[in-house]
Design goal:
- It is a single chain.
- The chain has a two-stranded antiparallel sheet with strand order 1-2.
- The chain is mostly helical and about 250 residues long.
């Protein structure tokens, strides 16, 4: 049914994830590559490190972390202030999604792009990636969204002297840079939107746990960890066997 193997045990899964010679993401069937091109998500070894390194260095600093904390808190406050007074709120589309999109868009400093545009690009790219993964026909909206995103990336590096994207051009071509920015949006919105929404769902449907966190705020980190354990935002990752490999009693 899956046309593949589902690896669920921890030891077997770690074997697959750590042995990039036997189990690779660098395969033409990888759905994300078909929409946004080669990136850190679709390469292994030295090529993966070349794609990834400019972003790791830029995002790992303590100053960046402090900026992100301030940006996240300010954006969260603004989104909550915009909730309708006394009315229902759909938390995924009114809060979790826009929060994730705004933070990553401002972090990579996409020149002139609005949160609405970033979310629209992301959802179009995801829709085509998911369609490829299930064998359904794609709409082409993902390719169009990636093209629009690439134009903004090129505009950003041509005009900005503050965006870390400019420094990434020391080792990446403009096309490679655009592909990796698309992957950053994909990862930063998909997982964060899902994790925030799941956490809020778990707390709001368990009033006793919500009250415990309100009463003792240090429990919030426990609630976040437990929410991730119960329901991770990303449930599967794809790898492609490069040869016949014995794993968990099967080949």
């Amino acid at each position: 049914m899956l046309d593949g193997w589902l690896v669920v045990g921890r030891d077997a899964a770690l074997t697959v994830l750590r042995d990039s010679r036997s189990f690779t993401v660098d395969d033409p069937r990888f759905s994300t590559t078909q929409v946004v091109g080669e990136s850190m998500l679709s390469t292994d070894g030295a090529r993966h490190l070349r794609h990834r390194a400019p972003f790791v260095e830029a995002l790992r600093s303590s100053a960046t972390r402090e900026d992100l904390e301030r940006l996240t808190e300010r954006t969260a406050d603004e989104l909550i202030a915009a909730f309708p007074a006394g009315g229902p709120v759909e938390l995924r589309t009114a809060y979790a999604g826009p929060l994730a999109a705004e933070v990553i868009a401002r972090t990579v400093d996409l020149s002139g792009a609005t949160t609405h545009e970033v979310l629209a690009w992301y959802r179009a790219i995801v829709a085509d990636v998911e369609a490829i993964g299930t064998g359904a026909p794609i709409s082409g909206a993902g390719h169009r969204a990636f093209s629009e995103l690439s134009e903004v990336v090129e505009h950003t590096v041509g005009r900005s002297d503050t965006s870390f994207l400019v420094g990434a051009l020391d080792t990446l071509s403009i096309d490679e840079l655009s592909s990796n920015v698309a992957v950053l949006l994909f990862g930063a919105i998909e997982t964060v939107e899902g994790m925030i929404t799941n956490l809020l769902h778990h707390l709001l449907t368990h009033p006793d746990q919500l009250e415990a966190v309100r009463r003792e705020r240090r429990l919030l980190s426990n609630a976040i960890d437990e929410s991730l354990r119960l329901e991770p935002a990303a449930a599967t990752v794809h790898r492609y066997a490069t040869t016949d490999v014995p794993l968990g009693g099967s080949t």
